[in-house]
Each structure stands twice: as C-alpha cells, then as structure tokens.
Design goal:
The protein is an alpha/beta fold and 473 residues long. The chain contains 15 helices and 11 strands.
Length: 473
C-alpha cells in the first residue's frame, strides 16, 4: 500500500480526521499480507493498539498528540523496544526482553509515533544481504529471488512494501543506504553522533549510527528532526543544528556537486553507471555545477573498514559470555566450558568470523601492522574529504556497484559479500552524513544514488536531497 506523507497523517490524526487505532490495524494487516517477504521478526500488536487508543483519547479530549501522532513505524531488531524480544536476529539474544527503550524510540513515541513491529537483519548487523540472520532471509520486494541488501534489509523491505510510512535501521558501513538502494527507497545516515545510540545493540562503536528509511526525503527529514540531538545516555552525541532538519527551499541550481571518480570506474555495472550518469545529467540541466573529484585513498577504504570494524566487534561482543544475559549453555562442567559452548552455539558463522579477524588484528605483534596502519589511512581519508569539500558542496556516486544480487549468490564468498559495501564504508569512516536516493531502474531492479555532505551539514544535505529527488524522478 501507499501511505500519505507523514506530516499529513499526523495532522489528520491531531484533527480527529484519522484514527490512530485504524492506522495501526492497517499496518498490522499489511504485515500479515506480505509475510512471504519475511521482513518482520516480531509484531507488537497489544502495545501498539494500547498506544493508539491513548492517542485517540488524547485527541478526543482536545489535546495535540505530537508531530508524528498515530504514525506506525518499524524498528530494526537491534533497537531496544518494549512489547517484543530484542534479538538482533541472533540466537544468542533469543528470549531477551529489553529493560528499557532506545532513546530514539522514546523520542519518536513522545511525538506520537507507534512501533508496530521489529524488522529482520543480518545477525548483530553483520552483513550486506540479510542472509546472515539466524532466523530467515528477507526477500527483495521487486524480486523474491534477490536480497534486499543489509544489514537493515528488513527495515528497507518494510518501507518498500508499504508496511509502515518509515522504519529505523542502523548504518555502520552502509547498512541503511545500501538496502535502500537495493529496494528503491530513501535511506539516511547522519553525521556521526547526531542521533543517540543508547539502547541499540553495538556493532562497531566508532562508525555506528542510527539510520532512517522512508519513501521520500521529506518524510525522512521529519523523522530526523524528531530524533536528532544530544543525549546524556550517549557521550558521543552532538548538538542539533539550530535550524532543525526539515529541508529548506529545494534547488540544485548553483550547487557545486563533485562526482567521485573512484566510484564510477572499474567494477560498476553498466546498468548502474547508466542510471547514475543520466541522473547527473539531469542535475546539470537543473543548474548544478558538476565536476569530477578524486579521493585517492578511497581504494583502501574497504580494507580499512574490515580491519577496524571487526576489531571493535571483537571488543563489543565479548560481553556475550553466557553468564549475565543471552544464550547460556546449561550442561557446562565448569566456567571455561560455559564460556566456550555458549559462544560457539550462540553466535553464527559471520559473527565468529568477525570476532576472529578482530581479535587477530588487535593481538600482540599484529596491532601495529594492521589496526594502527588502518587508523592512519582513516585519518588520510578524512583529510582528503575535508579537502574535497573545500572545492564542492556535495559528493555523489552510486550506493553500490551493482543492483540487488541473487539470494545465495555470494553466501559462500565472504569477500564478494564485503564488496557490496565498497561505496558506502567511507562515509562511516569519515563520519559524514550520506543519503541514498532512488534514481531509476536497471533490468527491473532499483538503482540508488548516494549524496554526501561535510560533517554536521545534515540539513543542507537533506535540502539538496529533496531537490535531487525531484530532479531525477
């Protein structure tokens, strides 16, 4: 189904023209009707309807119910949410009920939004296809034989299927933008620290961000405006921009847009390149000043990411030891066996692979050779991006080198799977905001254009993204 713009839904609920309970039921029915796509791990019907009734009562008594009044949404299952288990799609966390909610969930609920379900993902957000979920593989809404991308594949598929007007994901190396590109919706990754990560299962703490997925840039921006800003529960958070995040006057005229040379070369499929080039041409006709920009160290970004990310994963996953919460092997003879069996059984293959890589690069004798050198290259990447943004306002390129690949096509080749992130990891390493905008189809599958801006220029990015959205469609 197609939802009205979020702002219109909330306005009608606040006026009593729409009923929040009906909106929740509409969403839950859509989830049931689209079960075959396996986007959802768990639904939250009781709590969702209870919150909807409360909103309707509030409106009936003459009160406003918030900027997102009655708007249903879906959260990736690594967000702590009341009313359903939080598993991060891993057997390790099966049965875990959150003792508190993520800050961004609390902020959405404070404005009247209603979480109706938890979306599938690659377990612990480790992957680019949602095939690494310990439960099942989500299917692409455009072709059920193909992946929806990952790790926020369930969230992206939910938006593309019209299950809710928006969904939350996370983006550590492209996990919101890449699936958005694969299914044909908008996927937003903010400046590092703009949104609180309190109450979200950690993956790699120096690159983790919240992600927002929606059908339009305007809907995306409204959600960003609600959840952005400092949080005492997350010391990495930064202050909001004073103007907020709703787009200003949307136009690309006079904007200096740099096409990333390294993202348009070898390895990009003809279909993807054709759509990106056609979109760039439309932007030029709309008045944008187009130039080619090179960031020489981009060719090393994927290698850097897959050293630093597993190192942080190895550290973050050490807390799952079978002793405090999560899966615990019950027949252990001693503490050592409890640790080893709990982790051997509870973690899937990809989690184990990343733990081993991460532990290796941090180990004595290898730290300087791998981890330290990767951090040096990361700093070089940051410097090159700062230099590029002195010459242009925004950077553009594809979100991924190909369209969505077949389910199982890369399952036995981790390197091929990691290459799906090759155009998205740099934004996370640099800490800049980035958005994926649908820009056409190739052989019946969506293609996404990625737009990047300097750190803390999120409002400017959302404004130009709205203009790009208009120009390329």
């Amino acid at each position: 189904m197609t939802w009205e713009p979020i702002e219109d839904i909330a306005a009608k609920v606040n006026k009593g023209e729409l009923n929040a309970v009906d909106l929740v039921d509409t969403s839950l029915n859509a989830i049931r009707q689209k079960e075959e796509f396996k986007a959802i791990i768990a639904i939250i019907p009781e709590r969702a309807r209870e919150r909807a009734r409360h909103i309707d009562e509030k409106v009936a008594s003459g009160e406003r119910a918030g900027r997102l009044a009655g708007v249903p949404f879906i959260a990736k299952d690594n967000f702590l949410v009341f009313g359903a288990e939080t598993t991060a799609a891993s057997n390790m966390l099966k049965g875990f009920n959150a003792p508190y909610q993520a800050t961004v969930i609390e902020r959405l609920e404070a404005e009247g939004a209603i979480c109706v379900a938890k979306a599938n993902l690659d377990a612990y957000a480790h992957g680019g296809s949602t095939e690494n979920s310990d439960f099942f593989t989500t299917r692409n809404p455009h072709d059920k034989t193909r992946v929806p991308g990952g790790s926020s594949g369930g969230s992206a598929a939910s938006v593309a299927l019209g299950l809710t007007p928006f969904a939350l994901g996370t983006d550590t190396g492209g996990s919101t933008r890449q699936p958005a590109g694969f299914v044909g919706c908008v996927g937003y990754k903010p400046t590092y620290g703009l949104m609180s990560r309190s109450g979200i299962v950690a993956m790699a703490s120096s690159t983790d961000t919240v992600g927002v997925l929606a059908s339009t840039v305007q809907d995306t921006a409204l959600v960003v405006d609600v959840i952005a800003g400092k949080d005492d529960l997350d010391s990495t958070t930064i202050a909001r921009q004073q103007e907020g995040y709703l787009p200003g006057a949307a136009s690309v005229a006079g904007k200096k847009i740099g096409v990333i040379k390294e993202y348009m070369g070898e390895g990009v499929s003809d279909g993807v390149r054709k759509q990106i080039e056609a979109s760039i041409e439309r932007l030029q006709k709309a008045g944008a000043i187009i130039t080619e920009v090179s960031l020489p160290s981009l060719s090393l970004a994927l290698a850097v990411y897959y050293i630093l990310c597993p190192a942080e994963i190895s550290s973050n996953l050490s807390r799952y030891d079978g002793q405090r919460y999560g899966y615990s092997y019950e027949d252990a003879k001693d503490l050592s066996e409890s640790y080893t069996k709990s982790r051997a059984i509870g973690f899937g293959n990809e989690a184990k692979r990343r733990i081993m890589i991460g532990t290796y690069v941090l180990s004595s004798g290898y730290y300087d050779a791998y981890y330290k050198r990767a951090q040096i290259v990361r700093t070089k990447l940051i410097q090159e991006a700062v230099s590029a943004f002195e010459a242009v306002d925004f950077l553009v390129g594809p979100v991924a080198p190909t369209t969505a690949f077949k389910i199982g096509e890369r399952a036995d080749d981790p390197l091929a799977m990691y290459l799906a992130d090759t155009m998205t990891v740099a934004a996370n390493l640099i800490g800049i905001p980035s958005v994926s905008i649908p820009c056409g189809m190739s052989n019946g599958l969506p293609v996404g254009m990625q737009i990047m801006a300097p750190q803390r220029a999120d409002r400017e990015l959302l404004t130009v993204a709205a203009a790009v959205e208009e120009a390329v469609q």
